[in-house]
TrEMBL record:
Database matches in Gene3D superfamilies: Vaccinia Virus protein VP39
GO cellular component: cytoplasm
Class of enzymatic activity (EC top level): transferase
InterPro entries in UniProt: Methyltran_FxLD (IPR027573), PCMT (IPR000682), SAM-dependent_MTases_sf (IPR029063)
Gene Ontology BP, a term: methylation
Location relative to the cell: Cytoplasm
The UniProt record lists the keyword Kinase: no
Single Gene Ontology MF annotation: protein-L-isoaspartate (D-aspartate) O-methyltransferase activity
Protein's recorded name: Protein-L-isoaspartate O-methyltransferase
Keyword Transferase included in the entry's annotation: yes
EC code: 2.1.1.77
């Protein structure tokens, strides 16, 4: 390990965080390590941000909110920034485009590609680009990063091509302009939303499609402009002033009015026999639902509702069947340690909804506990036929295929 930078508190925290990012496998190369140790992250967050938040492994720092208080720009969490730079496989001299500016990530990129490389950072919001350009200048990176204001969905880069494009806003689809902007053998790193579940996927071109070579769990502020994709939300009042909200990225029910009053019905449940140990990751179960469970949605419960009082016994993922819905639940495992997955459900057809969810939990357990692979097939490419065990998600400009290798 390198020595503590300067002995000041920020330098100490940065050095400690670098060690943690290496130990947890997010930093894998000496170039990214050196960049992380060199760039003062605290120079790019609002001045009143506590240093322990700035130098926390998985805390982002919001830099701008919209009129409703929703975060629209942030300095992303350190773990996802370094993981995405690793996914981009940059070298000294690489040309890299960052979509979504803030300054800090661009400074890391400038360190990684060195003086012979090129870093362009584009953001749709002039307030963000002004701030990023000013902070980069103040931190000594002004001449090493080109900052542009534009909607990155469009043709804003002319004929310039890049060895890597790193998208730092949550994308529902891949813009054709990004694919055109990639040099031969180039990498596209993008937090892609697949039916509401996000992964930062490192893609490379291979025979007319993009093949994912790595994936990291992480969420981002949403894409704005031409690439914006709005969820559809339905609030289900509980009759006591609270509500449960169902949010659909795709496949929202045709007649949500069928769900009126559903929370007043008696609740049922079904259990899968599938267990998970404490500390064992099951993030890919959500991705499995996103790919294979029609009617899949996310769930949020207002404080004071029955669900809010039972927060430790469920996860915010559900499924709708007509006038009923079910949501992912857990109970202590009967044998051994950990929890068993199941579904609790409301509505006249809650049993069907719960069974549909439980069947997919069991299918994930039988076939899917391996790491999924991702491909993106742009519209117009010679499409492969996908077997039934591949989840296919249709997008505007292509499709995403998610595969689970056999155990
Ligand atoms: C998480 S922030 C970027 C963080 C930054 N990379 C950093 O250094 O930490 C995401 C940014 O994406 C920008 N953005 C959203 N949609 C965009 C679009 N269509 N084109 C360009 N930028 C966009 C937002 O304005 C926001 O500033």
């Amino acid at each position: 390990m390198m020595a503590v930078d300067g002995g000041d508190q920020a330098g100490e925290l940065r050095a400690r965080l670098a060690d943690e990012l290496i130990a947890r496998g997010y930093i894998r190369s000496t170039r990214v390590e050196a960049a992380f140790r060199a760039v003062p992250r605290h120079a790019f967050v609002p001045a009143d941000t506590p240093l322990d938040v700035t130098y926390h492994v998985d805390r982002s720092v919001v830099t701008k909110r919209d009129e409703n208080g929703v975060a629209v720009s942030s300095v992303s969490a350190a773990y996802i920034q370094v993981a995405m730079i690793e996914q981009a496989e940059l070298r000294p001299g690489s040309r890299v485009l960052e979509i979504g500016s803030g300054g800090y990530n661009a400074a890391l990129l400038a360190e990684v590609v060195g003086p012979g490389g090129r870093v362009v950072s584009v953001d749709i919001d002039p307030e963000v680009t002004d701030r990023a350009a000013g902070l980069l200048e103040a931190a000594g990176y002004g001449g090493r990063v080109t900052v542009i204001t534009a909607d990155a969905q469009g043709e804003v880069f002319g004929r310039e091509s890049f060895d890597a494009i790193i998208v730092t806003a949550g994308a529902w689809d891949l813009a054709p302009a990004w694919l055109r902007g990639l040099a031969v053998g180039g990498r596209l790193v993008v937090p892609l939303r697949m039916n509401g579940v996000s992964r930062s996927i490192g893609f490379r071109w291979e025979m007319g499609r993009l093949v994912g070579t790595s994936a990291v769990v992480g969420g981002f502020v949403p894409m704005q402009g031409a690439g914006e994709h709005l969820d559809r939300e339905f609030r289900l009042p509980d009759g006591r002033g609270g509500a449960v909200t169902l949010r659909f990225d795709d496949g929202a029910p045709d007649d949500p009015a069928l769900l009126d009053g559903v929370l007043a019905s008696e609740r049922g449940e079904a259990w899968s026999g599938v267990t998970v140990g404490h500390g064992e990751s099951f993030a890919d179960l959500y991705l499995w639902f996103a790919g294979f469970l029609p009617g899949f949605c996310k769930l949020a419960a207002d404080e004071g509702t029955e669900l809010a009082q039972e927060r430790k016994s469920w996860f915010p993922f559900g499924v709708v069947r007509g006038d009923s819905f079910a949501y992912l639940s857990v109970r202590p495992a009967l044998e051994g340690r950990g929890v068993e997955f199941g579904a609790r459900a409301y509505g006249a057809h809650g049993g069907e909804a719960a069974t549909a969810m439980v069947e997919q939990i069991q299918a994930w357990d039988e076939r899917g506990r391996t790491e999924p692979g991702f491909e993106y097939w742009p519209t117009g490419s010679a499409l492969a036929r996908f077997p039934d065990d591949v989840a296919v998600l249709h997008k505007t400009h292509g499709l995403v295929a998610i595969t689970w290798p056999a155990c």
